[in-house]
Design a protein that fits this description.
Blueprint lengths: L45 E4 L4 E6 L15 E3 L21 E9 L8 E6 L5 E6 L2 E2 L3 E2 L5 E4 L8 E9 L29 E6 L3 E10 L7 E9 L6 E11 L2 E12 L3 E8 L16 E9 L2 E10 L4 E4 L2 E4 L2 E2 L2 E6 L12 H14 L4 E4 L6 H10 L2 E5 L9 H18 L5 E5 L9 H14 L5 E5 L1 H4 L2 H4 L4 E5 L20 E5 L22 H19 L4 E6 L5 E2 L8 E2 L15 H4 L10 E3 L14 E8 L3 E6 L7 E3 L13 E6 L8 E8 L2 E9 L6 E6 L3 E3 L5 E9 L12 E7 L2 E4 L4 E2 L6 E8 L5 E9 L3 E10 L1
Parallel strand pairs: 22-23, 22-29, 23-24, 24-25, 25-26, 26-27, 27-28, 28-29, 40-47
Antiparallel strand pairs: 1-11, 2-3, 2-4, 4-10, 5-9, 5-11, 6-7, 6-8, 6-10, 12-13, 13-16, 14-15, 14-17, 17-18, 19-20, 20-21, 30-31, 32-33, 33-36, 34-35, 34-37, 37-38, 39-41, 41-45, 42-44, 42-46, 43-45, 46-47
């Protein structure tokens, strides 16, 4: 796993509890001219995590917001939390479309008495109306971005009560609001308090925000321009001092200090850190990160400290492609939804970070599009650390609502950029509703707002064939982004000619478009579906990336999509199956192309784009043009203990000249009885680097069970995925199996998911989550049993 910092940026990075920054990143070529001066003593920003010990009472009642309400019958839950139990499929919006009540009893530490108090909510789906001790706070409509509410003067000594009414109806807020209801957007919105909640304490004068913008990164004037937003409440006028330093592991590379005059209650000041020519840059291969600290003082007394993390990089979209630190870089990526089986949007931090790892280290992409809403900051932190570029966009999907709806969309753009503009991974802002109609005035205002908050990144939004028709008069973005779904004349993936004079990016392609049959989106790519259709998916993705790379004016391709997700549109029992992995993050055949796009020195790969399974009747095999994706120089295939001649295969560089690792193709159509076993050996130059074997003898199949993590934290929210399914005697994936897997757990954890789990609809694999119990350490043992495949067991540890 990536380093274990699971904190929110900006605030918690200024807290002593967040001092550990995980694995250090080398500073390479710089060293301070002299030892850093001792840092001034600064009062620690106080934070009281409120994720545990919530009381969930189900649907709202008229008196539930009152402090005296009797909540003894409520159920104790831990955040993040979804209001209704979910399976991995068959989600029904009616099950969550209510107003739900959460209550949290808490005490304010006595030493916080003279500080300003704020409640911070990471995200609540889809609207929140909170009260403290019966005092109503300003409601917040919208589910994907954080919000704060000041509660100074509303708390008391002893016990306080925070109540949150969560409205999970189809509200008139982005992305919902369409009169056609939940089936009108291509993702579902299960409700709940789906992020963390904290009580935060600040001095009267404090740093509300710090934005650090790298400037002239490739030139001689490399610097960081810092915009500090100071909140002074009623303490005006005020002479204050601001001190900033950039470095790593207590070593300062550069510092700056200034005295400024505070004239208004909410005011911005600018600082500049120069002399940064020796600092290593952030890029996709070397994601170098540095700590920025800003200290606010008054009358020689330090009041507040704000820390964040940045990377120095130059990311530019030009008419001839995307340039990262001056080097043209082909964007190679996938779209991602943050929906999870059983959890909806309420996944714990470990699972969010794991998604970034899968994308970067398993699927080998360098870019991810956060479709179609701002995603968790935990995920973005992991992208920073891994070197995964990000397209981030506001909530929406095709629909543009009324004036109130548009105002909320503008608010979301502002909140998104303010929260995330220090992330070096973010290369572009999506400020146009995904695939929406042209609206020149609305989107002009969106772009201007984005530029006022962050002029270092371009703004864009996805276009469709309809909106593309009049783009020359109704388009106001910096990068032309196009969702390209059309077939070439031969039924393969077609790539549209890019527009002239502007940077151009393909933001969606492949998806569930039916290239073979012409127009339409009737492909499902279900693991339990047609094996031939599943084999098409990886080839379509390979074609899309290869053909886009052939046109140097295309900056890259972000294909649709990484993981299956909950939807009612072109879905199978409430699951959209366009992912190259299923919702459990288990790779389908469609992922075989991505799995192989890695240097064999890092990880040699052999991934057949077929099942070695012939089924009943006369077997014919995977076909005359069976694809095998590999990063090897050549493959050798042998059958049944090497009886008969071997096949020697070369990568199809003629058919896929723009892929670093093209597919191999083999004639695996058998006229008579098919061999029962196949072995594929992979060679780099003349050395064998990998051998994989496959069996079609079903009597030797077995049950596979794997935990993604060996250790969890006993906070009641931490969880890991336990994956299982049918494999052959060599451990290789099978064609879809059936039957039930029954799970048993022993130790300080609970199973979250379907148990027993039916393999019939999932295509022979599945997963559940195992979540910890608060303050319960020990060993968890999970056993899985299938009536034909046998049993398996895995143990993990839980620490406090």
């Amino acid at each position: 796993m990536i380093g274990s910092r699971l904190t929110r940026r900006g605030f918690l990075r200024g807290c002593a509890a967040a001092a550990a920054l995980g694995p250090a990143t080398a500073l390479h070529s710089w060293a301070p001219d002299k030892p850093p001066a001792a840092k001034p003593s600064v009062p620690v920003r106080r934070v009281l995590p409120l994720d545990g010990d919530w009381l969930f009472g189900g649907k709202s009642s008229a008196t539930a917001l009152e402090a005296s309400f009797d909540d003894d019958e409520f159920t104790r839950v831990v955040l993040p939390h979804c209001v209704t139990p979910l399976s991995w499929q068959g989600w029904n919006p009616a099950s969550w479309e209510e107003v739900w009540i959460y209550r949290r009893h808490f005490s304010v530490p006595p030493e916080w008495r003279d500080l300003r108090l704020f409640l911070h909510f990471d995200r609540v789906m889809a609207g929140a109306a909170a009260a403290v001790n019966g005092h109503a706070l300003e409601p917040h409509p919208g589910g994907f971005l954080p919000f704060d509410r000041e509660i100074t003067g509303l708390t008391k000594e002893g016990e306080n009560v925070l109540t949150v009414a969560v409205d999970s109806h189809w509200l008139n807020v982005p992305p919902s609001g369409s009169p056609d209801g939940p089936a009108s957007i291509d993702y579902l919105l299960p409700g709940g308090i789906t992020g963390s909640v904290e009580l935060r304490a600040f001095p009267g004068l404090f740093l509300r925000e710090v934005f650090a913008k790298p400037v002239d990164v490739l030139g001689t004037g490399r610097r960081v321009e810092i915009r500090c937003r100071v909140d002074a409440a009623g303490q005006l006028p005020a002479q204050i001092s601001l001190h900033a330093e950039l470095g790593k592991a207590e070593r300062a590379a550069a510092t700056v200090s200034e005295n400024v005059q505070m004239e208004t209650a909410d005011q911005e000041f600018n600082l500049t850190l120069g002399g940064l020519g020796g600092l290593a840059l952030w890029d996709v291969d070397h994601p170098n990160l540095f700590d920025l600290e800003v200290i606010l003082s008054r009358d020689g007394r330090s009041l507040d400290r704000y820390t964040t993390r940045i990377g120095l990089r130059d990311a530019r979209f030009e008419p001839d492609g995307f340039y990262l630190n001056g080097r043209r870089t082909q964007l190679f990526g996938l779209n991602r939804h943050e929906l999870f089986p059983y959890l909806g949007f309420a996944a714990p931090a470990r699972l969010l970070r794991r998604d970034a790892e899968i994308l970067k280290r398993k699927f080998n992409v360098n870019t991810v599009r956060c479709s179609h809403y701002p995603q968790s900051e935990t995920f973005l932190d992991a992208c920073d650390e891994l070197g995964l570029l990000v397209w981030e966009e506001l909530p929406g999907w095709q629909y543009i609502g009324d004036g109130s709806w548009r105002a909320l969309a503008m608010r979301d753009v502002e909140a998104m950029i303010r929260r995330d503009r220090n992330h070096p991974s973010i290369a572009i802002w999506g400020v146009r509703i995904n695939e929406s109609a042209n609206d020149l005035e609305f989107y002009h205002d969106m772009r201007e707002l984005a530029k006022s908050l962050d002029d270092s990144r371009p703004a864009s939004g996805t276009m469709t064939p309809d909106s593309r028709q009049d783009w020359q008069t109704h388009w106001s973005e910096d990068v032309f982004a196009f969702d390209d779904y059309h077939a070439a004349p031969d039924g393969s993936v077609g790539i549209t000619e890019p527009v002239e004079g502007f940077p151009y990016l393909i933001t969606e392609t492949v998806g569930q478009f039916n290239y073979r049959a012409g127009q339409g989106f009737d492909r499902k790519y279900r693991r339990a579906g047609d094996p031939v259709e599943q084999m098409d998916q990886a080839l379509f993705h390979a074609q899309a990336h290869n053909r886009a790379a052939d046109q140097k004016r295309i900056a890259g391709t972000l294909a649709w999509c990484a993981f299956d997700y909950g939807s009612l549109m072109h879905a199978q029992n409430g699951v959209k199956c366009a992912g190259v992995a299923d919702g459990f993050r288990i790779a389908k055949l469609g992922a075989s192309f991505y799995l192989a796009q890695v240097d064999p020195a890092v990880r040699p790969v052999i991934e057949p784009n077929f099942y070695w399974d012939f089924g009943p009747g006369t077997p014919i095999g995977p076909g005359e043009h069976a694809a095998i994706f590999s990063n090897c120089d050549r493959l050798e295939i042998a059958f049944d203990l090497d009886l008969g001649p071997r096949m020697v295969l070369q990568p199809d560089r003629d058919g896929f000249p723009h892929l670093k690792y093209p597919p191999f193709f083999a004639n695996l159509k058998f006229e008579g009885p098919a061999p029962s076993e196949m072995r594929i050996n992979g060679f780099v130059k003349d050395a064998q680097v990998l051998s994989r074997s496959f069996s079609s003898i079903r009597t030797l199949d077995r049950l596979w069970l794997q935990a993604e993590d060996a250790e969890l934290t006993a906070d009641g929210a931490d969880a890991t995925r336990f994956k299982f399914g049918a494999v052959d005697k060599f451990g290789s994936q099978l064609a879809p199996a059936t039957g039930q897997v029954v799970l048993k757990i022993d130790g300080p954890g609970v199973i979250v998911g379907d148990n027993p789990f039916s393999l019939d609809e999932s295509g022979g694999v599945g997963a559940v989550y195992v979540r910890t119990l608060p303050q319960r350490a020990g060993k968890i043992r999970v056993e899985a049993e299938h009536e034909i495949l046998g049993s398996a067991a895995v143990e993990i540890n839980v620490r406090i």
